[in-house]
Each structure stands twice: as structure tokens, then as C-alpha cells.
Protein: 2-dehydro-3-deoxygalactonokinase
Organism: Dyella acidiphila
Amino acid sequence: MSQQMALIGLDWGTSSLRAYLYGADGAVLAARQHAWGIRQLPEGGFPAALRAITAGWPPCTVVAAGMVGSRQGWCEVPYVNVPADARAIARGMLRVGACHSHDLWIAPGLRRIAPADVMRGEETQIIGALTRGSQELASAHFVLPGTHSKWATVNEGCIVAFDTVMTGELYALLLKHSILGIGTASDTVHAFSQAAFVRGLRAVQDSGSSGVFGCLFATRALMLAGELAADDVPDYLSGLLIGEEFRLAALRGANAHPLCLIGEPALCERYLVAAAEFGHASPTIVEDAAAEGLWQLAAMAGLLEQARLHSYSGADA
Amino acid sequence: MSQQMALIGLDWGTSSLRAYLYGADGAVLAARQHAWGIRQLPEGGFPAALRAITAGWPPCTVVAAGMVGSRQGWCEVPYVNVPADARAIARGMLRVGACHSHDLWIAPGLRRIAPADVMRGEETQIIGALTRGSQELASAHFVLPGTHSKWATVNEGCIVAFDTVMTGELYALLLKHSILGIGTASDTVHAFSQAAFVRGLRAVQDSGSSGVFGCLFATRALMLAGELAADDVPDYLSGLLIGEEFRLAALRGANAHPLCLIGEPALCERYLVAAAEFGHASPTIVEDAAAEGLWQLAAMAGLLEQARLHSYSGADA
């Protein structure tokens, strides 16, 4: 029992909760996932969700990151300002208190003062990717596609700046609620039309300084004119919005550095296509970055020592 | 009875229907309005709505413009390509057929081939504004704020190009459905905060070639940081989106020509503030442009002659 490591990591976002049980070397022994994001908690709220997702796992120290540390989360953990490295983030962690014989620590998010921007959870993924990835990534651009896509600039292991674009949220809103979605089968799943996607990318690329806002309505006009099939509208729109991310990144000089993608494979696939269109060298893709990042932050915060102590006392109980 | 002019004009859009009864000189004798836009028709559909809104008015020729001529409308009237003047638009009108002893004519919308764009109804308002406005407006930029704002370039009375930006629709979607609306009282009516609006305008102006897409999430970050009051979010967001319209217009060289605003007074007020911020000379505002435009198109299409004949036959009945 004295050999048993006891650390649990939680990647707790708006719409999902992922839990990891680690071995002594940081390897993930078990992983679980549930839709208990902070906006859709089970009865009993945060403690009940934690209890349920760790059921049967040893009582031990828990380290969490993501929206669980936001104002709407379990406990608001103040942002740490960029530039910030893993050590600075670890220093900003807060102990929420014991719960169900767990010691719970929540990681802070990052804040950029001007232009104003915030992230929660992605910082931990970036820390994980920095550990997992090659040395080349110590100075690179990290792209985390999603509801609110993040583009972070890392310099010698330190997150120096980042920008948020509401790509995924706008995509869903426009397809579901706007005129652009009318007549498209947004509820059915189509095979990815790379041709439509690339066409969207190029429309934004060709727009120069105008960008995506001036291109959106053309989606409707092209469909009315029979020049864009209704089935192709979602991928064309996806191309417009992801293309805008790359157009903005180019304005910030992102083309000069290697690109690292952290995200779901299907989404990363689109970003690979976009990166090629926008003249980037082929990006690195890092998986399971959150699990690695949570472990790293726990280590930096000295929680692994505590976990070992906890493990011994667990053996005594 | 032979002196009585009989023409009815309909400005029939997605969410509202406006009807005008004209005197022989084109003056509006009576005007009615109802929420029977083409997406919310009463039982009995288009004919029932027309019958009800013209109840008690003399049977006569009807000229209509707007989404009523779209694929989802009463009858699809093919677009006329720009460049197009009032005569070209009038030539594109289609007679839908008699209904409730009315002869119904629907005006075409305008289409731009590249970049692809379409309008329905605004062309008629521009024709009306060209008649109502001063000679200076014969070559000007016409701005029609709304759900889908239109910026049209008119050269010697001819509409040569136009662009659509989904300002109003995005504003409503973002406030109602996105993270930006969380914590804001979007359902209550606040006094217009010009300071918040101007702050939004300047954020886009200062973004240079980036534009609004990269600025949206900052609305949330500023609110979280306590640097933007929740009550100010709607007007700040309005400033961002309307500011983007002016940023795009400047890229197209719109600052070189006079600006004419056609729209609701409260909305035009915002565009006046934005025009000043973006260095435009004070724009002209034209009201009741649709009523005037419908009359002009009827005249160009020879429908006033027909209306007179109809009026005589009405007297015989």
C-alpha cells in the first residue's frame, strides 16, 4: 500500500467533466468522462459529481482545472496574469477544502490585461503539451480549437500572450438560429466536405483586411444562386470561421513559429487543412494534454508529496 | 369617382407588413402596419393578410416589395443584377395575378454576382430616398441598418454595388444565446449608453485589419474583470458590430462620398454617432423611403395608368 500513488486529476469544463486516476509515475491508470459540466451538474451539485465520477477510486488529493474555478464554478480561483509558466500557474492554485475525504485543489485560469482576455483549463493543457511535446514546442503557437478557440504564444516554456475567438460558438449559433442555417440539414451528420471547407477558407483569405464578418451573408447568397449546395453550407461556414482564426493569427505574425494543435482529432483535422492553406509548416498534434498538465501542476505545487503522505495515512485507516 | 386614384403599396418583409394607400399625386392617404411578415402569416396565408390589411380600401392595383418576392414569399420574382436603376427594377416586376379584386405586382430584389450578395426591399427604399433626397444623393452611399444591414453605392441614380452585413441578427444572437449575454439583462430596456457604444466603436477602430471577430470575446473578459458593467454590454456589443460595418466601408473607400441613412430613428441615431467617429460628414436621414419607392416603381412600370383605368372600372361596378 505504501507504493500506491494517489492523485486524481479533473478536467472540468462548461459541458463535460473528465477524471484521471494516476499511477506513481504519472501514468493514467483509469479515465472517466461524464456530461456533468458546470452548467449541467447532477443533483447535489459539485460534491455529488466529484463523488460519483471517482466512485471506487482511493481517497486522495484531487487537482482540478477549467471552468470549475470560475465565478460560476465550485470556487472562484483568481486569474494569474500572463506571462506565466507552469510554476506561476501552480502557485496560483487554491485549496477548496476537504470533500468526501479528498483534498481538492483548483488551478487558476490565465488573464491577459490588454487586449482583455481570459482562459480556464487551456493553460493546463498547454502545460501538458509542453511536457509531452518535443523540445521544439518550448517556443511555439498553441492552438486549442473549440467553442472558444484559444491561440497562445509560448516562449521558452512561458505563456506570454493569447487570444480567444468564438469560432465554435458562432458556428453553432449561425447554423441553428440564423438565416444561414435555413434550408440546411443542420441536424443530420454529413461526411466532411473538404472542398466546401477549403472554399470557405479561401473566401476569407481573399477578403484581405475585411475578414469574415463581411463574408458571412454571401453564404446565403451563394446558396440562393445555386452556387453552394445546402449540404455544403455547414462546412463552408466552418471554413469561413476557422479561416478567420488563421487570418487573424497571420496579422499577429503567427506564421513565423511552429504550430501545436491540442484538441479533438476531427476538429484538429480541419485545422491541419487550414494550416496548409495559410502556409504553415505541418503542425504537431498533442493528445491527452489535460491529463499530463494536471499531473505537472500537482507536481509543481508539491501536491505529489502530499499525495504520498495521504496514501500512507490511507493505508493506516 | 373618376378623380380617385387607386394604388396600394406593400412593404412586405420577413417580420412585418406595411401598407400604404396613395392619393393621385402619390401622397400617402393612409398607412397600416402589422406583424404579418412572411414568416408569421395569419391563417389563410398571403391572400388573407393582404385582404385584412387593405380592408375598407378601394379595390385597386397593388405594388409590393421585399421578401414577399423571395422563394419563401408569395411568388418568387427573379433578382435583377446590379448595376440597376429604378427603370431596370421596374422592368423586373412580376404580376402575380388578381386577388380579392386587386392586381398584384411584386418588385424584384437585386443581386450582386461577385462577391455574391442579394437584397429584397431595400432597393425600393433606395429608389424612394433618391426621389425624396437632395440632388447630392444621386451619387452617394446608402446605409440601411437592420437585421441584415445593407450598404449600397449609388452612382448617378444607379445602384452599382452593395454589401450585406448581418449586424442586427448577430447582435440579437450573441446577446440571447452566447456567453456574452450571460449576466446581462437582455430582456429589460436600458437607456442607450452612448459611452459604452462609442467604446465598442473604438475597440474595432483600434483593431486595424483584425476587425470585430477578434474583439468579441473581450466583451466577456472586460465584464469579468469589472471593467465593463453588465448593463453596458449590449451597447458595447452594438458599438463593436456597427463599428465593424464602418471599418469595412472604409476599406471599400466609402469615406469619399456622402452618406444617406434609411431606417428607424433610434437605429439611425447610433449610425450618426458611428459616422462621426469614423470621420464621415454628417449623413442625411431619409424617412418613409419605402412608400415613396413603391410609388416610383409603380409609375415606372406604367401601373399608375392601369390604376386609373382600374379606378374607372371600379366606378362602373
Notes: DSSP finds ten helices and 14 strands in chain A. Residues 312-317 of chain A have pLDDT under 50 and may be disordered. The two ends of chain A are 11 Å apart (CA to CA).
